[in-house]
C-alpha cells in the first residue's frame, strides 16, 4: 500500500527535510504534493521524487491526500487542521498549536506510539523535548527519574532557514569588520550566546523552556515529573546540545547507564573520554540518532544521580525525522 502525501510548508527548513527523510526511509509514497505560501505557488522544486510544482497551501483539497505534514506555523495549523482531518486526511503537525490539547496525542514514536490511537491529528514535539526524550525515558524506565534539570545550547536552525542565514551573514559581517546587525534573534547571534528563546512567561521562564516541561510530562505520561530547563541559543547551525542532570529513585551508576543506552534505538552512545569521544554538533549533524555521552555520576545527587550530554539534529529528530516516524506508525 502506498500513500498520497502532502507537505504544507515545503520550502522551509523542516519541509525540505521531510521530503529527504521520506525518500531516504523509502516511505511508500504514491504521490507527493508540495504546498507553500501563495508567493511560492507555481515554482518548481527539485526533489528526490522528481520535479514538483508547488501549490498554494491555503487552497489545498485534503480529500486528495492520505497524510499531510504541517510545517508552516502554529496559527496556520490552527486554521487548517480541522479542514484536513474532517476530509479524512491524517495531519502530523510540527507546530505547538495542539501539543497541549488533551485530545491530541503528542508523540515520540520510540516512546509512546500507542498514544496515537485513532486520532487523525498528531502533534510533533518541540525539538528540544524530542532530542532529550529517548535517553531520558530509557533512564526513567530503568531507574525512575525523580528530578530533571536541563541546560540547552540550541542551534540557529531552530528559527528556520532565516535563523541559519542570519548566523552566516552576521559571521561574515563580523569578520569583515562591518556592522553585524540582527533580525531573527533578539541580539546578534554570531560570537554570542542568548539565554532567550521564545517569549518570557509569567514565571520568568521562556515558553521554549516551559515546552520542555509540559511536553516531556505528556509524552512520558508523568504529569507531575519535576523538570526545569534553561534554553540558550548559540552560534551553531543545526544541532541542539543539552546538558541533563537527573536524580533517580533507584541507585544508578554510569557503567550500567552506558550499557543500557548503548542498546537503545535512536541513541548513539559516544562516551569514551580517554579518546576524547563525546557528543558534539559537528558529529551529530545530519544524523538520525541522538548522540549521548559524558555520562557520569552527578556530584550533587551521588549514587542516585547522573549527568550527561546529548546532541541531536534539530531538523531531523527534532522535527522532520520524528514526523516521518509518526507517519510510519500510522
Ligand atoms: C527553537 N525549539 O530552537 C525551537 C524551534 O515549538 O516547534 C521549534 C519550536 C517548536 O527555536
UniProtKB/TrEMBL annotation:
Catalysed transformations (reactions): L-aspartate 4-semialdehyde + phosphate + NADP(+) = 4-phospho-L-aspartate + NADPH + H(+)
Annotated residues for binding of substrate: 154, 233
Residues annotated for phosphate binding in this entry: 99
Positions contributing to NADP(+) binding: 11-14, 39-40, 157-158
Entries under InterPro entries matching the protein: Asp_semialdehyde_DH, Asp_semialdehyde_DH_beta, NAD(P)-bd_dom_sf, Semialdehyde_DH_NAD-bd, Semialdhyde_DH_dimer_dom
Pathway assignment: Amino-acid biosynthesis; L-threonine biosynthesis; L-threonine from L-aspartate: step 2/5; Amino-acid biosynthesis; L-lysine biosynthesis via DAP pathway; (S)-tetrahydrodipicolinate from L-aspartate: step 2/4; Amino-acid biosynthesis; L-methionine biosynthesis via de novo pathway; L-homoserine from L-aspartate: step 2/3
Documented EC number(s): 1.2.1.11
One GO term of the biological process aspect: 'de novo' L-methionine biosynthetic process
One Pfam family cited in the UniProt record for this chain: Semialdhyde_dh
Domain of life (superkingdom): Archaea
Boundaries of every Semialdehyde dehydrogenase NAD-binding domain copy: 4-119
Classification via CDD domains: ASADH_C_bac_euk_like, VcASADH2_like_N
Keywords tagged on the record: Amino-acid biosynthesis, Diaminopimelate biosynthesis, Lysine biosynthesis, Methionine biosynthesis, NADP, Oxidoreductase, Threonine biosynthesis
Active-site residues, as the UniProt record annotates them: 127 (acyl-thioester intermediate), 240 (proton acceptor)
Subunit structure: Homodimer.
Functional description taken from the UniProt entry: Catalyzes the NADPH-dependent formation of L-aspartate-semialdehyde (L-ASA) by the reductive dephosphorylation of L-aspartyl-4-phosphate.
PANTHER family, per the entry: ASPARTATE-SEMIALDEHYDE DEHYDROGENASE (PTHR46278:SF2), DEHYDROGENASE, PUTATIVE-RELATED (PTHR46278)
Family indicated by similarity: Belongs to the aspartate-semialdehyde dehydrogenase family.
Protein name per UniProt: Aspartate-semialdehyde dehydrogenase
Naturally occurring in which organism (per UniProt): Methanolobus sediminis
Amino acid at each position: 500500500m502506498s500513500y498520497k502525501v502532502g507537505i504544507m510548508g515545503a520550502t522551509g527548513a523542516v519541509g525540505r527535510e521531510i521530503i529527504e527523510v521520506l525518500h531516504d526511509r523509502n516511505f511508500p509514497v504514491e504521490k507527493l504534493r508540495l504546498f507553500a505560501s501563495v508567493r511560492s505557488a507555481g515554482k518548481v522544486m527539485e526533489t528526490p521524487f522528481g520535479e514538483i510544482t508547488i501549490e498554494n497551501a491555503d487552497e489545498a483539497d485534503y480529500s486528495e491526500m492520505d497524510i499531510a505534514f504541517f510545517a508552516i506555523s502554529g496559527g496556520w495549523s490552527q486554521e487548517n487542521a480541522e479542514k484536513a482531518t474532517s476530509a479524512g486526511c491524517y495531519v502530523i503537525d510540527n507546530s505547538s498549536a495542539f501539543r497541549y490539547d488533551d485530545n491530541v496525542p503528542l508523540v515520540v514514536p520510540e516512546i509512546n506510539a500507542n498514544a496515537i490511537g485513532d486520532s487523525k491529528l498528531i502533534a510533533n514535539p518541540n525539538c528540544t523535548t524530542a532530542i532529550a526524550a529517548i535517553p531520558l525515558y530509557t533512564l526513567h524506565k530503568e531507574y525512575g527519574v525523580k528530578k530533571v534539570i536541563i541546560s540547552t545550547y540550541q542551534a540557529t536552525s531552530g528559527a528556520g532557514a532565516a535563523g541559519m542565514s542570519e548566523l552566516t551573514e552576521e559571521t561574515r559581517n563580523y569578520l569583515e569588520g562591518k556592522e553585524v546587525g540582527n533580525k531573527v534573534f533578539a541580539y546578534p547571534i554570531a560570537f554570542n550566546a542568548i539565554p532567550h528563546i521564545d517569549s518570557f512567561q509569567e514565571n520568568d521562564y521562556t515558553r521554549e523552556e516551559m515546552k520542555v516541561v509540559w511536553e516531556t510530562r505528556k509524552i512520558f505520561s508523568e504529569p507531575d515529573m519535576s523538570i526545569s530547563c534553561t534554553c540558550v541559543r548559540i552560534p551553531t547551525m543545526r544541532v541542539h546540545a543539552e546538558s541533563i542532570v537527573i536524580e533517580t529513585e533507584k541507585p544508578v551508576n554510569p557503567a550500567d547507564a552506558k550499557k543500557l543506552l548503548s542498546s537503545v534505538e535512536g541513541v548513539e552512545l559516544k562516551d569514551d573520554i580517554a579518546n576524547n569521544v563525546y557528543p558534539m554538533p559537528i558529529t551529530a549533524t545530519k544524523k538520525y540518532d541522538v548522540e549521548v555521552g559524558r555520562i557520569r555520576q552527578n556530584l550533587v545527587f551521588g549514587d542516585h544521580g547522573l549527568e550527561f550530554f546529548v546532541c541531536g539534529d534539530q531538523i531531523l529528530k527534532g522535527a522532520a525525522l520524528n514526523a516521518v516516524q509518526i507517519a510510519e506508525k500510522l
